[in-house]
Amino acid sequence: LSGTIESLDIKPDGIYVDCTPGFAGHSSEIAKRLTTGRLIGFDRDPDAVKAAEEKLKDYPHTLINRKFSTFDESLDEIGVGKVDGVLMDLGVSSYQLDTAERGFSYHEDAPLDMRMDQRQSLTARDIVNEYSEMELFHIIRDYGEEKFAKNIAKHIVNKRKESPIETTGQLIEV
Q1: Which residue, 83, 12, 7, 87, is CA-closest to 42?
Q2: Which of 7, 92, 124, 126 shows the greatest Cβ crowding within 10 Å of its Cβ?
Q3: Contact 45, 96 (CB under 8 A)
Q4: Is residue 84 a contact partner of residue 15, using CB atoms and an 8 Å limit?
């Protein structure tokens, strides 16, 4: 954490963007170093934004409940044309993994969800049960870097012919 923060070389009057604030671990460390500056954070997960708002309430900040891919558009909307530093800590948070009903973890049998932003309608259940074998193969190979992607996709399609795959436990079994 401290190495990452130090490498940003934070100026007290600077504008810094945390593209993945989550529960504001890095964000709060950035914000503590600002006086007249500003922290801007992007997070898709409304639960994370709510928690980050609480942790950052005493610091100058703006949290945006959107994907960081809206970076340029969102900064334009709030009148920010230039920033002094950007942080991206990519991956799934421990909160998402530890909250079984989010469907990210295989430690507990849970509904097959896996949405970073639960306002989105498309779930992992939809993908597993509706995408073609070729689409599943590409997703598993390209994003999961799985060398057995073709075989896994074939088994998913065969299993769902019997009944829909509804939970992380069922997907593991396949």
Answers
A1: 87
A2: 124
A3: yes
A4: yes
Q: What pLDDT does residue 105 have?
A: 59
Q: Which helix (H) or strand (E) holds 80?
A: none
How far apart CA 65 and CA 56 sit, in angstroms, is 15
The answer to whether 16 and 37 have CB atoms below 8 angstroms apart is yes
∠ CA 104-22-1 to the nearest 5 degrees? 110
Closest CA to 30 of 1, 68, 54, 69: 1
Query: What 3-state DSSP class applies to 83?
Result: coil
Element of type H or E holding 30: helix 25-32
**Per-residue pLDDT at 44:** 85
Helical spans, DSSP H, in 33-167: 46-56, 71-77, 94-98, 124-130, 133-144, 149-162
Q: How crowded is residue 167: how many other Cβ atoms within 10 Å of its Cβ?
A: 16
Residue 12 · residue 81 · CB < 8 Å: no
- Positions in the chain whose pLDDT score sits under 70: 1-2, 90-107
Q: How far apart are CA 79 and CA 101, in angstroms?
A: 38
Which sign, positive or negative, has the C-alpha torsion 81, 92, 95, 156?
A: positive
